[in-house]
Amino acid sequence: MKCEPYRELATREVDATPYATSLIEGHRDFGYSLETALSDIIDNSITAGAQSVALIADTAADEAWIAIADDGSGMTEAELIDAMRLGSKNPTHKRAAKDLGRFGLGLKSASFSQCRCLTVLTRRNGKTSCARWDLDRIAQRNEWSLELIDNPELVKGHHLLPETGTVVVWEKLDRLSGGYTHDRGKRAEYMNSEFSRAERHLRLVFHRFLEGTKPRVKLLLNGRRLKPIDPMASSHAATQKDPEEILRLRQGDVVIRCHTLPHHKRMSQEEWDEIGGPEGHLKSQGLYVYREDRLIIAGGWLGLARQTELTKLCRIAVDIPNTMDAEWRIDVKKASAQLPPVVRERLKRVVERFVGTSKRTYRSRGQRLVDETRFPIWNRVQKDGQIVFRPNLEHPIFRSYAEQLPEGLREGFERCLRIVGAGLPIETLHAELVGNAEAVTADETSEHDLKVLVCSLATTLMENGVAAEALPDTLQSNPFLRVRWEAAAQILDDFLRTRVS
Ligand SMILES: Nc1ncnc2c1ncn2[C@@H]1O[C@H](COP(=O)(O)OP(=O)(O)OP(=O)(O)O)[C@@H](O)[C@H]1O
Ligand SMILES: [Mg+2]
Q: How far, CA to CA in Å, does 443 sit from each of 134, 200, 258?
């Protein structure tokens, strides 16, 4: 075979600097929403050591504007110029522990996703610096020249600047107008509704910073202090917290902790709705991934399990350090990540065990309620791998009534009960129970009906040798009576008293 002589590539170099206009316009579409954009700006404030972050949204002004003011470290002019640069930091460089940043992009890309004019005012050691990127100005000039403003006292938001700290100001909010460019009222209404959605997101994402008697950070929205929403309901006495499991990896530790939320009956409606969020508990079960205490993923099993009604109280907190960003494929918005294979393996086992136990607890609870009750109203019958619910024709209330009926009507009465059982609307019940289980309740009973039921059950039980003292316990094992126990107990008392007299 003939050997070709070695030849070097002949290369030339030409200038291919990106076009400022196209690149910066492209930075508007990383896929941020108002809440993820605000979170990215707040990340910077927290990293800068701020104790207070104030969001001001002037939605009613002629030219609506938004400011995020913090009392963090502030920046020198040189630092500010660097901060305004796209890609101000190298994503592959090591970050200090607790640094919430990674890409050197967030300040710019989050801001441009919402506005066309970003101004940053900052003060350190008594010196105020101010810089601005105005996309319309860049569009005219098509060059990377940053505006420095030497009389910052004239800039909107200047009055919000503390002795040391930073104010990020968004103007020309073209993406937040909701299309109502000429209708100020409608535009303000739209922006306010966006802000109330964002508010919940911020309360959730930064909840660990906002919690406790001495919170690490105070977060204000138009002067109102935001309260944390803890998706693990950790401080609720009825929340079940499993011990922490630590996965030690080369890049750092992953800490996993399973939580079972309290049953909705053990929480106030407000608490329940708050941690369920707009999507509800079914959709909110799953993994909650925290990066340096900041929530980046809220719910969903990332392919490790299915979201089922039986597991909707299961939530697993997964804590990761910022040293694992590359493995977790953290995105610029800090709103998504992927499980690294070694974590996936381990987490899969944890999830299977946790979710499996939870399903078994629910199932056995359901069976026990029917099987162990003496004289249930419904019988649970298991047959050929199927489960049917049948009205219990032997229940004293049905039996004693049937016995009073003439022979010819007795059969008809029992047929009616059987039809009620066979007509149980299984599909509708199923549909209602998925996602909305706590809203499905049993119908009310009249006082008279309850009285007849308690008395006939008590009579039958006593005829079957149950002592009067044991009646309350036995009757309470009946779920129907247990949920109405206050009224039932009173009826039982009266019943026993009249029997004695
Ligand atoms: N509020 C602030 N206070 C002090 N310094 C800030 C503030 N906001 C931004 N900076 C500085 O500007 C830099 C650039 O911020 P930017 O959000 O663009 O990138 P990042 O936070 O480094 O990474 P990421 O793209 O992951 O957010 C920060 O690294 C920080 O040094
Ligand atoms: Mg940042």
A: 62, 35, 36
Residue 189: other Cβ atoms inside 10 A:
15
Residue nearest (by alpha carbon) to ligand 1 atom 28: 83
- Both tokens of 11, joined, read 């290369």
The CA distance from 369 to 197, in Å, is: 41
* 102 in contact with ligand 1, CB cutoff 6 A: yes
Tell me if 221 CB under 6 Å of ligand 1.
no
Binning pLDDT at 50, 70 and 90, where does residue 253 land? very high
Distance CA 264, CA 256 (A): 24
- For the Cβ of 106 lying below 6 angstroms from any atom of ligand 1, the answer is yes
Alpha carbon of residue 354 to chain centroid: 19
Question: Which residues, at least 6 apart from 189, have a Cβ–Cβ distance to it below 8 Å?
Answer: none
H-state helical runs in 50-104: 77-84
Q: What is the pLDDT of residues 355-380, one digit of tens each?
A: 887 776 666 555 544 555 677 888 88
Q: Ligand 1 centroid to 335 CA: how many Å?
A: 17
User: And the tokens for 450?
Assistant: 């309850």
CB of residue 107 inside a 6 A radius of ligand 1: yes
CA distance 268 to 484: 19
pLDDT given at position 360? 67
Task: Give, using CA atoms, the residue closest to atom 27 of ligand 1.
Answer: 106
pLDDT of 370-427, one tens digit each? 555 677 888 888 777 788 888 988 888 888 888 889 888 989 999 999 999 999 998 8
Calculate mean pLDDT across residues 7-31: 89
